[in-house]
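Sequence dictates fold. Next comes a concrete instance:
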Amino acid sequence: MNRRLFQSIREYKKESVLTPVLVLLEVLMEVLIPLQMAKIIDNGIQGGDLAYIIEMGAILAVMAMLALFFGAMAGRMGSYAAAGYAKNLRHDIFYRIQEFSFKNIDHFSTSGLVTRLTTDITNVQMAYMMTLRLLARAPIMIVLSWIMTLTIDNEIALLFLVAIPILGGALLIIAKKAHPLFEQVFDEYDELNNGVQENVNASRVVKAYVREDFEIGKFHKISGHVYELFTKAERIVAWNSPIMQFTIYAVVLMIVLLGGKDIIRGKMEAGELTSILVYAIQILSSLMMVSFVFVMNMIAEASSDRILEVLSEEPEMQDETGAVKEVPDGSIDFDNVDFSYAGEDGALALKNVNLHIGSGQTIGIFGGTGSAKSTLVQLIPRLYDVTKGSVRVGGIDVRKYELKALRDQVSMVLQKNVLFTGSIYENIRWGDEHATDEEVQRVCALAQADGFIREFPDGYETQIVEGGNNVSGGQKQRLCIARALLKKPKILILDDSTSAVDTRTDALIRKAFREEIPDTTKIIISQRVSSIEDADQIIILDNGRIDGIGTSEELLRTNEIYREVYESQTSQAGDAEEADAREENAKPENTKPEHAEEGGNGDER
């Protein structure tokens, strides 16, 4: 695993060091036990010395108990170290993601980041624990057991020097062929998780269009590809076990053959052959452990590479030394701004944008789909950095602000409204975690959300389910507006955030803005002319350029885009009102409800 990842061990270094030390003591006891057994067999049993057998047996029992104690402690310390290491890795990845700009996040898929935080870290955790215990144990066991074998019989000890290179070479070949396949598998996991996440999030759409069979087919295709890659990799790794087993049994047979001859010739005692066989099993079992850890590390290596991608991603936006921590006011200036999502060499989404917005003004932004309306406002809280030119808030370039200070004063309700699992109170307090119940209720009233909230059985304690799927689109928008208002920002940006509410509610929200937050700069993106026609200025965007700026009256005279949409929407509204009037006039006079007529007659009598 990469050294960069080992920096996440931190406070678990002590456990990480103690684990191999305890393993060393455990192995030392296990290596001495066969030697003690040989003495009991050769000197005690064959000599018929019961006292010697009892004495050596007591020592043997103590060794076994010590081996058990050291092994248990090593397992405990190893578990702490591995679990703590995984915890720190999750912490480091999650915190690094929090530092990412939108551009950084665009480099990774949501499902890819989730897989790294779950499956990949689990793989690294398992590999680390095995490395601390098994990989520390195996070399020590091999060396000590081989030394003990060497003290008993040189010829047999040389057998192991032949077996070890054979097994090591086989492991290297297996690793070289399997590692690239494991890397592909985890990339496919990202695709699989992405498909499942998309399907669950869009389950209503899937059912509405009866596309379950299509989604199942898509899932089976990706799942099948993961299966094929894993099967191919596992087939290669599967060679590890038979090669190891064949080598172990071949070596044991050779030991029995050579040891048997030495016993017949009187050069070796039966107890010595027994201890050599135990040492052989220990050596070859340790080699099996090494191969097992090797395979686990092969999988973990692919995972660690993916984790390292996130940790190595440098946040595009970082605070300068001596960054400004106070936003003077809500004025906004764009000076010769160009912006491209792909950087300087990419296609420009915004081109030569110049505009001034005074503090406290209400600004409408209007334009067709893809005209870069959302892109424009995302530069204000510095969700992206300009490619060329500058954006100033309160007369200061946004790049000179401390990011937290800037974003605390710019409340933004994005196009895609997001609510989190928890009560309505908890969701609104994202704007200000210390807000009182009364403050929360006040901003909900401004956002025209208080009425429907109080209709819920639990009122403000109503629990929002994941994604906010238990409230309507319009209700979700109003809750998000309330959340933004609670921040008491100097700049409030609504990115098409009232599209799901009716025109009357939209008008009430705008009225509340004018009366309750007159000093806040308000930027409203909308496709609905009625939502922006009373703004101080309306900015018309077309293909990333400013096509016009002015009041509604001025733009009706000077801007063709605005005039066409305005006339289209007002004529449609007029047609709807006329149709309603015709329908009302077409009703016959005697359609008054029967009980009303009876009431009238009673009054006359």
Remarks:
- Residues 18 and 77 are 7 Å apart (CA to CA).
- The radius of gyration is 37 Å.
